[in-house]
Amino acid sequence: MDFKNKNDDGILEKLVHINRITKVVKGGRRFGFSALVVVGNQAGKIGIAHAKAKQVPDAIKKANETARRKLIHIPLREGRTIHHDVYGKDGAGKIVLRSAPKGTGIIAGGPVRAVCEVLGIKDIVAKSMGTSNPHNMIRATMKALSKQNSPKHIATIRNKKISDVIEKRG
Predict the structure, then answer these.
(1) Are residues 71 and 48 in contact, defined by beta-carbon separation less than 8 angstroms?
(2) Kindly report the CA angle at 119 between 117 and 124, in degrees rounded to 5?
(3) What is the pLDDT along the chain (170 residues), one digit of tens a residue?
(4) Do 9 and 47 form a contact (C-beta atoms < 8 A)?
(5) Burial degree of 23 (CB within 10 A; 0-12, 13-18, 19+)
(6) Phi, psi for residue 92 in degrees, rounded to 5
(7) Would you give the DSSP letter of residue 130?
(8) Edge-to-edge strand ranges of the sheet holding 124-129
(9) What's the pLDDT score for residue 5?
(10) C-alpha–C-alpha distance, residues 71 and 89, integer Å
């Protein structure tokens, strides 16, 4: 599934996965739908959400609204990649995210690609291991991204200048 929508406020909405849910009742089967959505401003803010409804458009709308309320900030290097290599795990979903030089592009599969696109990452290499379940992959990706430290954060922890932290990068 790939559904992009950019609203007036500059937030990009991307549908990652739709699932049909069946509830068996006395008269037969009742169908519902669940939607997994990522939203972001392509400048370091991202939110993910999962919502259920009887109709697909309603599920997508509910998920978008929830994701907009749960936006978090992820630090990016030069506004195009992550600061350092990170590993994330959630359930059976394991992911390795590696920073890449300019011009590499997004080398990532399905759900991870959607997360990178709405976050504003332009150069990254990602490897998903374990499961292909989009829910676990996205949660593992978010855990990995939140584990990342920016030079500004490290400098404040060590009581040093940002230039002292960055000079050994290489």
Answers:
(1) no
(2) 65
(3) 555 666 667 889 999 999 999 999 999 999 999 999 999 998 889 999 999 999 999 999 999 999 999 999 988 888 888 888 899 999 898 999 998 888 889 999 889 999 999 999 999 999 999 888 999 999 999 999 988 887 788 888 888 887 777 775 55
(4) no
(5) exposed
(6) -90, -5
(7) S
(8) 86-90, 93-99, 124-129, 106-107
(9) 64
(10) 21
What would the two tokens of residue 162 be? 């940002």
Query: pLDDT at position 136, please?
Result: 93
**Helical residues (DSSP H) of the chain, grouped into ranges:** 56-69, 110-119, 134-147, 151-158, 162-166
SS3 86: strand
Q: How far apart are CA 71 and CA 11, in angstroms?
A: 10
Buried b (16+ CB within 10 A) or exposed e, 44-75: ebbbbbbbebeeeeebbbbbbebbbeeeeebe
Q: Are 115 and 36 in contact (CB under 8 A)?
A: no
Q: Is 65 helix (H, G, I), strand (E, B) or coil?
A: helix
Q: SS3 of 121, please? A: coil
CA 4 from centroid of its chain's CA atoms: 14
pLDDT at 3: 56
| Residue found by looking up tokens 């959505």 in the block | 37
